[in-house]
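thread: overnight batch results

M.L. [08:02]
morning all. the overnight job finished for the chain we discussed friday. pasting input first so we're all looking at the same thing
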Amino acid sequence: MPTEPTADRPALDPSSPASIAELIGLLDLERLEDNLFRGENPPESWPFRTRVFGGQVLAQALVAAQRTVDVAAHSMHAYFLLAGDPSIPILYEVERVRDGRSFATRRTVAIQHGRPIFIMSVSFHREEPGLEHQLDLDRSVPPPEEVPGINELAPEVLARLPAPVLDYWTRPRPIELRPVGLGEPRSEPRRFVWFRAGRPLPDDPAMHRAVLAYASDMTLLEATTVLHGTSVLGTRIQAASLDHALWMHRPFRADDWLLYAQDSPSASGARGLARGLVYDRGGRLVASVAQEGLIRPVIPSSDDRA
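M.L. [08:03]
and the structure it wrote out:
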């Protein structure tokens, strides 16, 4: 897959808002001690910094754990405990749980204001041969070149989108997103989103795993609400990621198009479960994701109803 800048995707531009260069900077943690790292939050050029984005904490915690081993991560399981404060750095403390011949295990705790805001276990595995199979890609999904970017959508489509949804999809970000059928009614809790890093990334596979972890939290919880004609992005739902699991099956590049095939097998008790399969454009299943989130309906007060 290509690694050099192309005509439609120039080299890194550190001055552009929410650029991939700034994301790479976010993932370059400062090492304070053997097992202690400090991660910064996005610069002021990034809008909507009311709280720390969960995908950022996922990615930074994975980077911290990766820097204590010499093998590749294959799975991570995390819990979001408290909302992150974007005004101060995040400390990541890594516990070296186990180092075996084939597998290694790490536990990462993200800390702010002296309290854990996030915990994650990561498993690492030395590559070895074995059995091969996968669930095939749904070939009815159009390729990314046939899915319009948000700035290419027809005016009538944009007019159907609630203001918070339109605001979310049009904001600058380091990950390029192309949702399939945005704004269309759904008959089942399923959706597809093409995504890739906005600019070419370094060749380090650990960086591509971290960027995938970052992107895996961007759109997944929305799968729990699409069947109900509402969104986690508006004011009708109080939403928050509760936990997040990511398994990485095969090598991939996060700066080439990846298809995020998402569904929600259940929603009940103000919680929704979302799943995702991540395919490369050649149809190889490269990762699987699962997340449970709070999707609590907001009941208007009498003043609001008036």
